[in-house]
Amino acid sequence: MLIKSLFYQLRPAHWIKNAFVLVGLLFGRAIFKPEFVVGAIFAFIAFSLMASFIYVVNDLADIDADRLHPVKRNRPLASGALSPFQAKVLAAFLLAVALPVAWLASPNVFAIVMGYGLMNLAYSFGLKDIVVLDVFIIATGFMMRIFAGTVGIGIDPSKWLIVCGLMVTLFLGFAKRRSELVQATDNKQRKVLEHYSVDLLDKFIGIMASATIITYSLYTVAPETVKQHHTDKLIYTSPLVIYGLFRYLYLMYQLKQGEDPVMDLFHDRQILLTALAWVLVTTVLAL
How many CB atoms lie within 10 A of CB 100? Predict the structure, then answer.
């Protein structure tokens, strides 16, 4: 039972977020270069371990609020399946392993993973309560994953891809806040929700969704993209991106989902198939 609780506390399903580390292999045409692949794999593992460390720290800090949440109260710490002492030991172990693995990727990846950990500690103990900044910090975490999988291992990232990554992560962040606000029965579950309104978040979401579509489309036809991938056909992946965004908006507005984007990806067949189709088509066209 303890092993199961420890494993669940790691939230391995959320490690898919660290797939942002692997984006550079695809869009940097480095997927068949062993030195880059090995570096990206180490970076992925390091980010997964560091993310799990942050999850443990967050759950320790939010244990009382999580007990008021209809879903989060089932987490190991909030439910009592895991004691605070056991969680602290787990956190120390994760940190002790994450940093050496990051160093194996490269000194740059080590610095990025360290920065990610420190930023999230600041988020957990204060910055998460600052309206708008809270979502920008979440988005920055995803951007650090992209940088770890590109400049961290020696791949030069596309400027358009960086901007597009920022737009889509801000979109998901504000969508997550809207779903939390709609589903919250008590704003004490997340203090920052007191400063948001559904109307404000709808405006943010609309802006970010539009910006994501525009920046991704511009990336696919940018001269540097065409030159790097020797094709101007990446524009044909845009409908998949647009459909995925619209499907997510449907889940959020009509089905009242969106609080956990990772679970939505796994549980919604259409989003999952769209994501897989995008990866397949992009791989065929970009390589």
Answer: 12
Digitized pLDDT (tens) for each residue of the chain, 287 residues in all = 778 877 888 888 888 889 889 888 888 777 888 889 999 999 999 999 999 999 999 888 878 777 777 777 878 887 777 888 888 899 999 999 999 999 999 999 999 999 999 999 999 888 888 999 999 999 999 999 999 999 999 888 888 888 998 999 999 999 989 988 887 755 456 788 888 999 999 999 999 999 999 999 999 998 988 888 888 899 999 999 999 999 999 988 888 776 677 777 778 889 889 989 998 998 888 77
Helices (H), the chain: 2-9, 23-27, 34-61, 63-66, 76-79, 84-105, 107-124, 133-148, 159-183, 198-221, 223-229, 238-253, 261-267, 269-286
Under 8 Å between Cβ of 58 and 125: no
222 vs 181: CA distance, rounded Å: 38
Indicate the residue type of 273: L
Kindly report the pTM of this predicted structure. Answer: 0.86
Q: How many residues does the chain have?
A: 287
CA angle 279, 286, 265 (to 5 degrees): 15
CA-wise closest residue to 11 among 68, 50, 61:
50
CA distance 58 to 50: 12
| Closest to 120 in 3D by CA, of 181, 50, 194, 49 | 50
Give the pair of three-digit tokens for residue 213.
Answer: 């579509």
Asked whether the beta carbons of 94 and 6 are under 8 A apart, the reply is no
